[in-house]
Amino acid sequence: MSEDVIKGISTGEGIAIGKVFIYDKGKRKVYPTGISPKKVSANKKIFQDVCKKLSSELDELLEHLDKGSADIIESQKQIIIDPEIERKVFSVIEGELMSVEYAIYSTYCSFIERLEESGSELFKQRIIDLVDIRDRLIDLIKNDYSPKQNLKGRILIAKEVSPTELITLHEQGIEGLVVEKGGITSHASLIAQALAIPCIVNAKHALDVKAEGKAILDGREGFLMPNPSKNQIREYSQKLNKLRHKQKEAQQNLEKLSKTQSGTGFELLANIEFEEEIEYANRNKAAGVGLLRTESLLFNNYSTEEEQQQFYQNVLKGIEGEITVRLFDIGGDKLNARIPDEDNPFLGWRGIRMLLDEEKLLKSQIRALYKTEALYPGRIRILLPMISVVQEIEAVKLFIESVKNDLRNEGINIDRSIPLGIMIEVPSTALIADKLAKLVDFFSIGTNDLTQYTLAVDRGNERICSLYQQHHPAIWKLIKTTADAAHQHGIDISVCGELAGHVLGACGLIGMGIKKLSMASSNILPVKEELVSHTDDEFSKLAESFLCSTSSDEVLKAFEGWRSKRS
Amino acid sequence: MIKKKITIKNSAGLHARPSAALVKLAGSFKSDFYIHMYGYRVNGKSILGVMTLAAEEGAELELELNGEDEKEAMSAIVELANNKFGMADE
């Protein structure tokens, strides 16, 4: 192996062979490009058009916000329409005969520098806003006024990449992903898994890679080889062919019934955020959607009641079975632009805490869901994120009742109640699950946040990500407590965290009597292959050994021992 | 053209949100609006201009308005400043 190999954490299996495509958004510089005097007015017009477009995007967002967050968007809007910015942009276009992209870039940069020089703490967030607005304006120009790129077969290298960007780039042909930042639960890796493309994250200095011809990305071993020899390319092409052959075989395994060796049925469902993922869920025979994330509706400004209904209907049309919709789970690492700076965002105003304050937003979502349910009776469930105390459940229930009354008064037919469940992701809820089980219709354990809150580890912090141990015995104990409570009170229980998609995790969960597991679609096959080959008794013995362990290493050893005894 | 001096009463100074409120109000009038502070002069309808003043509590600003509706504009802006730009005390 050559010396310039880039290593990372493997999060999406598979192999890609292709030219690299450097997506250097953060550092992307716009270079001075001259224009002819004839193009001056066209360039000015483009500036006014994109400002109008971005401003109306923010207006749409404003309609759904309460005062606190609305103020923040309002000051972003004021920046976009700032007369001094326009004056300066125009003078660069007209006076220096530069392209609109460069005029925007240099104007914003000069204001950013001035704010930085003022040294005032108050403007830190505004500097972030300015950078964001600058990049969004330039992106709008690039998207609307430049040809789409053909990226067929290319390997994407980026510092970080948002879910929407990744999906767009995949549509343009990207077949592999290398990200400098992030851990295994970052959104980029979740999407890469769903798209079934090889992916490595936490790949230090990947952007510095110098690759002329084809490069090799090995998602299983977790490396990118920038300048492979001819022999290596040949070797990997063979591996890739074998892999494709194996995937075909595996497809046949998916046709098997979902039953353990003892004949007990189980359900494997898909975690979904984007409509584009449904195809992969169906290909993997998901029994439904165990977790429908809805936050991206907000990111992409599709948050009116009608737009939400359209999205829910598209999902219901696209896949059979039950759809569990998690209400907007924003805060923490997501959508920070709308949320005031907090010292501890993961312990802050997020999930249900924010929704109960942002009544307009909550109302629009409940209304959209009830209206959709009327068309697809019995197929929707509502899942509440980030519940930590019982009062939140009571408050949401009252809220839903009042929304239902409104709808009835509007003449909309609402006979049923949509089943209401809570995420078990804060340890407090797991510990009193027996009490909460009397108040809700189902539990869904979110093991990612449960791990984060139980082990007090930020999953995004690269320095301590080794402490982020989803199969730690403490997590298993909380899961057991929750599962016992659900079984005792006869309510439905499922797991929608990453743990459910790991073979080890899935075996342990089945061993605790949890028969509904929701995961990234690409994990369904390996999980299914394992679950169909053991008896119930074997699974419960495994679960017992997890509960008796002292460390994650012991859990891992117990699993390896258990598995080798079998085969 | 009319001029008037005001003092910033917000304990957190004239940060982004009060600046946005000021600029939004000023933008609803036809008159030109400039702010003088410590020898600087900025366009009062530009949020970035206002923010770069970094005016803290107690800072003295001179408002300059020039145009057909300068009187109405001045009294509205002074009232906004007296109301701490609509911010609850921070």
Describe the structure.
The complex is a heterodimer of chains A (567) and B (90). Helix content of chain A is 49%, strand content 12%. The relative contact order of chain A is 0.10. Chain A contains 22 helices and 16 strands. Chain A has helices spanning 40-62, 67-80, 83-95, 100-118, 124-145, 163-171, 187-195, 230-254, 278-283, 295-299, 305-318, 352-357, 359-375, 390-409, 427-431, 433-436, 447-454, 473-489, 503-511, 524-531, 536-547, 552-566, and strands at residues 6-7, 9-12, 15-23, 155-158, 176-179, 199-201, 214-218, 223-225, 267-272, 289-292, 323-326, 380-384, 420-424, 442-445, 492-495, 516-519. With 567 residues, chain A is α/β, with parallel strands linked by helices. Chain B has 90 residues and is of the alpha+beta class. Chain B has one domain: Histidine-containing Protein, Chain: A (2-Layer Sandwich), CATH 3.30.1340.10. Chain B has a 4-stranded antiparallel beta sheet with strand order 1-4-2-3. In chain B, helix 1 (16-27) packs antiparallel against helix 3. The N and C termini of chain B lie far apart (34 Å). The model of chain B has no long low-confidence stretch (mean pLDDT 89). Chains A and B meet through helix 2, helix 3 and helix 4 of A and helix 1 and helix 2 of B.
Largest sheet of chain A: 8 strands, mixed
Which structural class matches the secondary elements of chain B? alpha+beta
Helix fraction bin of chain B = 25-40%
User: Would you identify the regions of chain B where 5 or more consecutive residues have pLDDT less than 50?
Assistant: none
- The CATH architecture designation of the largest domain in chain A is Alpha-Beta Barrel
CATH class of the largest domain in chain A: Alpha Beta
Key features?
heterodimer; A: 567 residues; alpha/beta; Glucose Oxidase, domain 1; Enzyme I, Chain A, domain 2; TIM Barrel; 3 domains; 8-stranded mixed β-sheet; 49% helix; 12% strand; globular; B: 90 residues; alpha+beta; 4-stranded antiparallel β-sheet; 4 strands; 26% strand
